[in-house]
Design goal:
Distance between the termini of chain B: 45 Å
Strand order of the largest sheet of chain A: 2-3
Number of helices of chain A: 5
Strand order of the largest sheet of chain B: 2-1-8-7
Number of strands of chain A: 3
Number of domains of chain B: 1
Largest interface: A-B, 33 and 38 residues
Strand content of chain B: over 45%
Radius of gyration of chain A: 55 Å
Shape of chain B: globular
Number of strands of chain B: 8
Largest sheet of chain B: 4 strands, antiparallel
Oligomer: heterodimer
Strand content of chain A: 5-15%
Distance between the termini of chain A: 156 Å
Number of domains of chain A: 3
Structural class of chain B: alpha+beta
Amino acid sequence: MTCAEAERLLDSFVDAELPGPMLLEVARHAGSCATCDRAVREMTALRTSLGQVVQGELEGIDLSGVWPAVEQRIGRSARRGAWRRLPRQLPVWGTAAAAIAAGALLWFRTPPPEPVRVTHARPNQAVIERLVSSEGSRVGIMKDRKYGTTLIMVSAPGEDAGQ
Amino acid sequence: MIRRAARTLPAGLSAVIVLLAMAATAQALSVEVTTVQASPEGPSDAQLLPFRPRLRRLVGYRAFRVIREESRPCVWRNREAFVIPGGRLLHVLPKGMREEAVVMQVQLQEGPRSLVDTDVRLQNRGVMLFGVDPERGTANGVLIIMLKAEE
């Protein structure tokens, strides 16, 4: 392995990401090459110090208020979502509720149906709703019970005078 | 375009009028007015035989002769006059149907005088009667007006 080949693999070597045989080859080369060995050591020291800095930074961060804040945001978002969904669901629920209410109202308020009276109107049945006769004339109403025929008999005053 | 519209307009109007007239005729009421002379004795017309028993019970005479008969379609809410012998008129104004009965205003007029003016509800295809007292005593019988309405 040459120094150029080893240099390309140094990052992966420090991170121990190389396969076993290649890791051994880089380690052998660094053991026999002072330049590459120095590069490996510098890189390892840098990595260690970087790790320590990041670790220190992470330890300094106060995460105690993160989850309550996240939970609060989640709850707010869920409530907002529920209100947004409501108008879409409202017509369906509103219609269903109105139908149920109307049905209940009709059920409770509609009086029980009256028994149907089966009556057969006689073929000649006539109902006199209004009757006006001229002054002095006599009007009589007769009805035939068997056939239901109505007779309105009129006698004018002049005719009576002749009798 | 306006000229074409002017040409087609009368035809369209005519068609509408014809259709309206047809619709009015189709919905018309058939009114039949039969004037019968009832007498104490004599022959009776064969067509009145079915009515004879009830006429006898109501009027009290034995013989019945048809002296005038008229049947015509009447348009709803349109007043029709039927001629009755003796210078009388029977005005019929059909108003509508209610519970299988024809609601109508019937007025019997003698000259300028209204003898009777009534609103009746007659069973569809039913017959009702108007009687006019004799002009010269009961010996000459009475005039019976049979009114039949059929939708």
